[in-house]
Amino acid sequence: MNDAIGIHPRTSVLIKGACPHDCPDTCSLLTTVEDGIATKVQGNPVHPHTDGVLCTKVSRYTERTYDPERILHPLKRVGPKGSGQFEPVSWDAALNDIAARLKGIAARDPQAILPYSYCGTMGQVQGESMAARFFHKLGASLLERTICSTAGGEGLTHTLGGKVGMKVEFFAEARLILIWGSNPIASNLHFWRYAQAAKRAGARLVCIDPRKTETADKCHEHIALRPGTDGALALALMHELITHDWLDHAYIEQHTVGWPALRERVLLWNSERAAEICGVPPEQIRTLARDYGTTPQSAIRLNYGMQRVHGGGNAARAVACLPALTGAWRHRAGGLLLSSSGVFPVNKAALQRPDLLAGRAPRTINMVTIGDDLLREASQALGPKIEALVVYNSNPVAVAPDSGRVVQGFARDDLFTVVLEQFKTDTVDYADYVLPATTQLEHWDVHSAYGHTDVLLNRPAIAPVGEAKPNTQIFRELAARMGFTEPCFADDDEALCRMAFRHDGVDQVDFDLLLAQGFATVPVPDAPFANGNFPTPSGKCEFFSERLAAQGLDGLPDHVPNYEAAGTSTAYPLAMISPPARNFLNSSFVNVQSLRDIEGEPLLEINEVDAAARGITAGAVVRVFNQRGEYRCKAAVSRRARPGVVNGLGVWWRKLGLDGSNVNQLTSQRLTDLGRGPVFYDCLVQVEVDQRAALA
Ligand SMILES: Nc1nc2c(c(=O)[nH]1)N[C@H]1C(S)=C(S)[C@@H](COP(=O)(O)OP(=O)(O)OC[C@H]3O[C@@H](n4cnc5c(=O)[nH]c(N)nc54)[C@H](O)[C@@H]3O)O[C@H]1N2
Ligand SMILES: Nc1nc2c(c(=O)[nH]1)N[C@H]1C(S)=C(S)[C@@H](COP(=O)(O)OP(=O)(O)OC[C@H]3O[C@@H](n4cnc5c(=O)[nH]c(N)nc54)[C@H](O)[C@@H]3O)O[C@H]1N2
Ligand code: SF4
Ligand SMILES: [Mo]
After folding, report:
1. Which residues line ligand 1 at a C-beta cut-off of 6 Å?
2. 581 and 455 in a common domain
3. What is the pTM of this model?
4. Is 3's pLDDT higher than 70?
5. Distance of CA 437 from the midpoint of ligand 2 (Å)
6. Final residue belonging to a domain, choices 285, 308, 338
7. 18 within a domain of the structure (yes/no)
């Protein structure tokens, strides 16, 4: 008996939540709370997609939540920008000063204020609800949230009509799975579990990826194409389907638009031509086409890794044509999945209240080009200079391309920067004020997903740590100080959760079920396009897009070469890609010691042929450089890199790198063909042994 020995009885409860991170899996979490302290975070065994399993990152969530490095109090800058020197201040002092500064700028032109946010949390509430209301009311510049998925998203939308596709659970029944531009063992673990079930049942798995990933190791075949050549590969696959008549003519006839035009385009793309561009043997393309064309239950798991290049939108369009040619959509275990986010009936207008703009149409800034935008002077065409930046749910100094320019912009002494954060990221180092934000264990939220079709509710498990506040609360309190009196600024977080899926007073998702079991499934037919019914203007799969043609763009998908295509520069002969690390999530978790210990240190994977040609040995410090900048790290001489391509894994924090930078020092601010997205993997570099390190 605890009482008998003088110890308080322990209360232990299990709280249902949702993983907030930018991951397709959106897992259902069970947090054990003992005497108000979260002691364990586990996967919910009742939620089918989670199936009781979490990734390594989030199974250590208590370590992250109680990390001694958590920001627990509002901070005000005392040192130069970038130095990360702050002193604690009270919430009142911080918010009063921030409101006064924003009011002063807004009186001249509110468009000089820019919110900068992405998916640090994917929650509908701690993402863009109260924050969007605040900036809409203010009339601040709008932000194009393009840093991840807009090229592929647009490509898919112009072909299938939206971010829609196969239900992820039916990959388990497929007979052939193409894992295309995706490394699910690292970044989509719960899909990989379905793929493994299919493999055990005899399915063939093919991985299409320049890098020999841990996923490629476990597939039957690996097609190691050059970065940015997926469009050519898809066109050649279609060519083979046509010449061998592995086509579902009835499906094409009834459920597609633009077949004669597509056929004509595709006939220009035989496998030899594509093989030359992709840097793979033509037989590999022909064999894949035969398998794909003759296996009715063929399923494609496309992921965003293949669209971070100039032609990413067109490549996604080309791949999305494949299942309509073979009629794979007729089967629930056939078709394609890039993102399921389009199936969720989110009421964005209720959450974000664009009506608060009241007829104003502020300019839009693309988050990809934040480096250039921060360094631009006022102009008639582009509007005022950016004078204030409010960053939340993002770490742009580490994740945005061309970081030499980004850092220069953030270092501007005449820029007023507020950062809402949990940890002292690279971006925090440049803030004038840092406001401590709660983590998922400390606030309410509701989540849609992009790798399955369930809505999840997140209840707070513990009280906020230190003086941290939810993003919503910070914007509520700022709104009050700005004098915004609309009742919507008083909505509490639970009310916002209830609003997220309610239209005209009717819940589109059962909120009582969410409260009771933590998740609810959005009804989607098992084989959504078995009988056409694509959400396109024509209702068909659009091989040819009238909408694109009307914009003066190519109505058909094509291969659009990289801006910096391999072999086009003698100064920078190697193509660099920088895909996700397994134990980080973008730049999140880099600060968690036990996870950083697993990842080790920033590395550049280089093939033995390219290493030998440069006198690079394993573990040598190398200088990686191009016209935009240079970056030093250690070399990993590895067959994970194909000849001609180097891989710089994970978005490391700059301050943890060898000389305070990361791979984004080299990436460019150019934009994709569709969707105005980033081209992180369209980047030529040269690599050499670092002379400083070699002499030392
Ligand atoms: N552990 C972990 N999980 C994550 C993330 C993370 O950082 N870490 N990031 C999350 C985010 S933000 C997203 S958007 C999602 C999806 O994130 P994605 O960035 O799509 O990540 P992956 O699924 O790992 O797929 C990327 C794969 O594409 C490959 N690739 C690179 N260039 C090309 C190309 O031109 N063609 C082809 N075919 N392949 C190419 C890379 O080598 C890599 O293996 O994952 C999320 N999940
Ligand atoms: N070179 C290269 N660069 C890349 C990529 C790549 O593959 N290669 N991937 C790109 C992709 S796909 C993406 S999506 C972007 C991602 O870029 P970001 O969206 O900036 O993602 P993170 O780096 O995870 O940073 C999110 C930050 O939000 C904070 N955060 C989390 N929850 C909350 C909260 O509730 N409140 C507040 N205030 N803060 C919170 C976290 O602590 C973290 O520092 O990076 C892109 N950059
Ligand atoms: S990061 Fe992804 S796999 Fe890990 S717990 Fe979150 S949703 Fe699940
Ligand atoms: Mo992303």
Report:
1. 22-23, 148-149, 180-183, 186-188, 208-211, 213, 227-228, 230, 303-306, 309, 577, 579-582, 584-586, 681
2. no
3. 0.97
4. no
5. 15
6. 338
7. no
Would residue 501 count as lying in a domain? yes
Compute, in angstroms, the gap from residue 35 CA to the centroid of ligand 4: 36
Residue range(s) defining the domain that contains residue 420: 75-148+344-521
Residues 377, 383, 386, 391, CA torsion sign:
negative
Phi and psi torsions of 630, nearest 5°: -140, 160
Structure tokens at 311: 């032609």
**pLDDT of 34-74, one tens digit each?**
999 999 999 999 999 999 999 999 999 999 999 999 999 99
Is 548 domain-assigned? Answer: no
Tell me which residue of 192, 223, 190 sits closest to 206, measured CA to CA: 223
Distance 106 CA to ligand 1 centre (A): 39
Number of domains, the chain: 3
pLDDT at 4 over 50: no
How far, in Å, is the centroid of ligand 3 from the Cα of 19? 6
Pairwise CA distance, residues 303 & 665, whole Å: 24
Q: What pLDDT score was predicted for residue 650?
A: 85
* Atom in ligand 1 nearest the alpha carbon of residue 149: 14
Give the per-residue pLDDT at 1: 40
pLDDT, residue 7, reads: 56
Ligand sitting nearest the alpha carbon of 641: 1
pLDDT in tens, 197-240: 999 999 999 999 999 999 999 999 999 999 999 999 999 999 99
Q: Which pLDDT score is estimated for 437?
A: 98
Q: How many Cα atoms occupy the beta-carbon half-sphere of 339 within 13 Å?
A: 25
Instruction: Read off the tokens for 21.
Output: 């991170």
